Every structure is written in structure tokens, then in C-alpha cells.
Amino acid sequence: MYAHSADHRPLIWAVSAHRLTEVFRAVGPEVAQRAHVEVIKQEYEEALAEIARRSERRACDVIVATGAHGAYLRQNLSLPVALVKVGGFDLISAICKARQLSGRVAMVLHRAIPPVLRQFAALFSLPLELRAYQTAEDARHCVHELARAGMDVIVGPGLVADLADEVGLTGVLIYSHDSVRTAFDDAIDIAAAQRHEKSRRTQLDAVLQHLNDGVVAVDMQGRVTTANPAAEKLTGRALRDGLGLPLRDLVPELAPGDTIARGTSERGTVQEIGGKSLVVDRAALVDGDVQTGAIFTLHGSNQLELAVGKLRAHSHRRSRTAKYRLDDIVAASSSMRSVIAQCRVFAEHSDAAVLIHGESGTGKELLAQGIHNASRRRRHPFIAINCGAFSESLLESELFGYDEGAFTGARRHGKAGLFESAHEGTLFLDEIGEMPLPLQTRLLRALQEKEITRVGSVDTLPVDVRIVAATHRDLAAMVREGTLREDLYYRLNILSVDVPPLRERPQDAEALALRLLPAALRRAGLDDDAVAAMLDTALPLFRRCAWPGNVRELENAVERLTMACLAEGRRVPARQIQALLPAAPRLVRGAPSRSLPDQRNRDELAHIRRVLQECGGNHQEAARRLGIGRTTLWRKLKAA
């Protein structure tokens, strides 16, 4: 009876047509916990036929046999064969048993007589006739010769012992129970190793089947040993039906070349195969220190382009995070503390758009990042864009993305815009007042409908984005002048934050100086005494400065002062510090300039805006009427 399919024990067939079968049956139950042993009492052709018949129901894991019979089975079967081997103890034990029966003893062994056995017989002066045989017919001939020579007992394998009995002699089996146990142990180890290797191969095959990249392996003769479905798809050839055939006959373009001849590797070779451009990697297959073949990895060019695009997008996503929190912003003044508190409320209790107004350098983007990090969207992207840094067409594609073929130079597969990239997060529109009038309509629709359409596409994409906008310009005045859509203004200005300039909050200027200056001086290598002395000299001058460039200008002044200290190699005097600060220090809250050049600039800008309004926001037509180039017009509007 065959082992049940749920039985995980290896199946061993012990094959012999002679008295060894009795030993197999006696020892088999001893290994029953580790293996299922079945005895087949057949030999040679009859044994092969019985093995084939049984294999139709369930193939065994290992066959156990002896001598010439075992060699025959190894030659004619693909199954592993474990041989019952004769040990020194087996020989001595069998000789002693035979000597007890008669003094005329012969020993007949398969293939050859071990030299140590001849030495043993000579050393102990044993009258022992020694013979060897190759085939069953040889064994029969030896036994008949020994019978005619007057031998009484013949020691040998089961075949020899049975032949001795047939001619009226006494046959003594050379194999002991211990030698059979050892053969069964070997068979169990072989089965375990095979199952481990089969499991490993199954896992490897499963991996290969699911790879998008093609994999083809060949042996040292260039014959295909492995191929996965992806390789067939990429090459257009039935590689798995051609296992064992030369690769050059199936895919001539994949000639192993130096990979087989010299064991060298080639990476990133581009080849035309099956009408496709493929990227091919070649590498040697090595087992230990011996090369056993070569492996080819095939990459479709489209797959590589998509992967590169995804990696770039992932890299951008990792960089599009808000680094600053509201608690990171210096707020020593009551006015700035009020701004921080206001932003915290907006972040925690509302998802509406926020408009941040303040002069350049007051930290509007820091506040935007702080609002994002204090909101429910903190785990999603924070993406910032300066609306004044792009031309109209480029800003449109950046914000809304584009489809493949939307314009000359457009990427294959298109590109996601910042609205899509900021989905479920925050989109910070810096310098919103610089957005061209035609684009304001598209932005308004995105805010109203919460959906966008890529450039060159007709399909809409839903987006969930919170808008935080910032500007240093008077948006209400722009509405009156017609350079900003009124409905967009009201969409952006739901919640508003006014950031006071640094000249109106000297406490913050001092607090920033106390944070930035010592850190910069220590990075430059100054000790604590030198840092303290510099603070005593610099802080009074910092307090008096109006900081027209706000925090950004204060940071610049700190850097200049630090470099001056390094250049001088000592503390810089007050007079030199004053020269490094913005234009001769002015009183805080200084009156605005009323100089004639400033008035002329304001009049010119007002005229430009009126003409632009008359032209419906068309920059090209406005530039023509004004008699200036479009680039000049753009620069003058941006400088306002």
C-alpha cells in the first residue's frame, strides 16, 4: 500500500530479488517514523518495469539497492539510488560465520576485491578463496567454478549467496543489518536534500514567473535551462518550449559571447529583439568556484522609463514636506505671538484657504508650513510654488500638469501637476499677486469645483487640496485696477493673516539676533568670551536698524558680520559693524520715502496697470501699446 498523500515522510523503495529482501523487511520498521519503506522483490529489467508501474501512482524519493543491481538501476533511472555498502565489520563477521561452517570458504564480491581484504587474509593465514564479478552471469560462472574446486561455503551479496544455495553449497550473506540501516539513513538524507532543493527551486520559479523583467539562463554549452513568461513576452519567442535547445537558435541576438567564454558581465546593453528595444544584462552563473552557465536579464525600455519616472516622483514627494512648525517661529513680540495664535486656530479648526500678507522676508512660507504641520493634513504633502518665477504657460503646466503630446517637448506619459501631487495636503501659492490674469480663471475653477484638468486633456481629476497663498502686494488695490479677479480674491481671502514687518517688532529682531548671531560665530570657531563680547557690541546696533529686508536681511547681516570676524581675526568694532548693516541705520518706524524718483516709479506702474486692464490682461498687446518689450513689461510688474 502506498503512503497517503498527506504523509510527509519520504518514500523509499528497497529493491532486491534475493535474500537481502529479508533484511530490508527486518530493518524497515526501525525507520518507520522517518520514512515509508517498500520492498520490491525484482531485479534488473523486471525491477525497472515494476518501478515504472508504481511511479504512475506515486514516484518514490530514493531507491536502495546493492552491488551490480544497484549500478544497473543507477544507469537506467533518473531517480537517486543509495547503495548498501560493505564495511570492514561486515566482512569479518561474514568470514567468521562461514569459518564456523567449514574450512573451505570462498568470498565473491562485486567489481573488485579490496586490497585490505587480501592483506587481512594473508596476515591471519586464512585459507580464503577471493573472486570478483561484474555482471550476474559473471557471478554465476564464479560460483560454479568454486563448487567444482571443492568449496563448501561462499560469502557474498544476495545474488551470490542464492547462487551458492542453488548449486548445493552454503551461501552466507555479506550484508549486515547495520549496513542496511546505514543505507536507509543515507536514503533519508538524500530525500531531505532533494526536498529542500525542490522547495528552493519552486520558490525561485514562483519569483521568476511573477517578474516583469525577462530572465533566461543557459548552461556552459549555451543551451536554455530556464526562461520565464516575461522573457517570452519581451522577445516574442517560445523559450520555455525550447528548454535544452541552443539559445542562438531561439534568440540569436542574445549570444552569450564573452559571458560564457571568459565569465565577464555586461550591464545595460541596448539591443533590438523582436522589434523592441530591450536593455540586456549578462552575468556568469557560478557554483562555488566553477562557472556553470550564464544568465540574461531583459528590461523593457518602457518599464525602465516608468520606473525612473516613479523614482523621480518619489524623490520629489520626499522633498515636499513642511520642515517648520509654528513653535519654531521666533515670536518675542506680542504682535507676532498674536499671529502665531491666529494661525494655530486656522490650522486646527478650519480647512479654508488662508491668505498671508506681509513684506518680503517676513517669514510667510514658514507660517504656511506651520499651518500645514498643525492641521489634519500634516501627514500629507506640502508643496510650494512661487507664482512669479514662471512664465504663464510654464506655470499652467506646473500647477495643472499635462498629458502626453500636449505640446512640443512634453514628456511621454505626461506629468502630474502640483495640484495632483498635493492631493490631501497643502498647496502654498507664494507671490499669488504675480499670477497672470488668464491663469486666474483656471485657478478659480479648481478652487470652486475641487477638480482640475491637465493641459491637453478633457478629463477632470478630483483634488482635495488646502490653499495657503501669500503676497506682499495690495490685492484689494489690484482688484480695483483689474489685474486680479475679484471672485478669485474672495476665494483666497477667506482667512487672512497680516505679518508685521521686523521694524515694527524690535523685540523679535533682538530675539532673532540672539539666536542667529551666537550660532554663526561659534560655527566660525569663536569661543564663548568672544561671542559674548560681539553680542554686547552688535545688539544695540541691531535694535536700531529698520531692516527693510526683514528677517532675510537680518540673516544676511549676521553672515557678513561673522565673515568680518574671521577676516579680522578679532572682535569687530562698532563702527565696522554699522557699515555692515543695511544702509546707515534708520529709526524704527521711519516715515515712508516721498522722493521724486519713487513718485515717478509709482506713476509709471499705475499707467502700466491701466493699460493692462484695458487690454484684458493680454501682456503682449499691453507691451505693444506701451512701446516696450514683453520681457520689460514682465520685469516692471514683478518689481512692483
From TrEMBL:
Residues 200-244 form the PAS domain. Pfam families: AAA_lid_14, HTH_8, PAS, PrpR_N, Sigma54_activat. One of its GO terms (biological process) is regulation of DNA-templated transcription. The keyword Nucleotide-binding applies. Residues 329-563 form the Sigma-54 factor interaction domain. GO terms for molecular function: ATP binding; phosphorelay response regulator activity; sequence-specific DNA binding. GO terms for cellular component: cytoplasm. Keywords: ATP-binding, DNA-binding, Nucleotide-binding, Transcription, Transcription regulation. PANTHER family: PROPIONATE CATABOLISM OPERON REGULATORY PROTEIN, TRANSCRIPTIONAL REGULATORY PROTEIN. This is Propionate catabolism operon regulatory protein.
